[in-house]
Amino acid sequence: MSIYIVVIGDIIESKELKPGDRKQTQILLEKYFDQLKADSSQLLSPYTITLGDEFQAVYSSAESLFKDLWAIMAEIYPVRVRFNISVGEISTEINREQAIGMDGPAFHVARDKIEEMKGRDILITLASDNPKLDRLVNSSFQILSANVNGWNKNRFLILKKRYGESDVKEIARELDLSEVAVYKNIRAGTLDAIQDLTDSVMEIINEMVSA
């Protein structure tokens, strides 16, 4: 069996949302998932809402993975979402139309990890066949989550655009912010360090997938 990247997302405290807010969140997700499906060549199975407050996807490689995760967080802000990234085997055929009807160790682990994350103040975890790597990365992600929990929407959007290599002047123009405000967000959110961290994790994931 080949190695894939399975992502499962779970809306945090979804049952606490008002019915209208929950419906609007689903609408925003579905709209953005359509955009990702059109834009990303790395999505083997596109983001699909599965249980109302959960969604999943399968990637062939991780180049756009973290950019996509930050973008999803920005799209549904101030509603929060947790993610597990599971690198492992899928035992069924890949469904290239919707991320449903598939099974295998990568899905099993991702679902277990999402359950473990509930009740913990952590937004992203990694699951692979390397426990030492997972411990290192997940400790870093826990520190990262403590930082991210205090962000406003603009900071998520700035980070997303930084992954696209937009410069500060362009980001300021697109978000209707001053360049000073963009620089302040980059420094206060340690966005460059976050990008370095996730770029390193992305490279490791890609090595596992291509091994």
Query: Could you give the distance between the termini?
Result: 12 Å
Mean pLDDT, nearest integer? 93
Instruction: Tell me what portion of residues adopts beta-strand conformation.
Output: 15-25%
Q: Let me know the largest β-sheet.
A: 5 strands, mixed
- Contiguous helical run count: 8
CATH architecture: 2-Layer Sandwich
Which spans of ≥5 residues are poorly predicted at pLDDT below 50? none
Overall shape: globular
Count of folded domains: 1
**Could you spell the SSE succession in H and E letters?**
EHEEHEHEHHHHH
Percent of residues in helices? 40-55%
What does this structure look like?
This protein is of the alpha+beta class and 211 residues long. It has a single domain (3-210), classed as 2-Layer Sandwich (Alpha-Beta Plaits), CATH 3.30.70.1230. It is built from eight helices and five strands. A five-stranded mixed sheet has the order 2-3-1-4-5, with helices on both faces. The chain is globular. The model has no long low-confidence stretch (mean pLDDT 93).
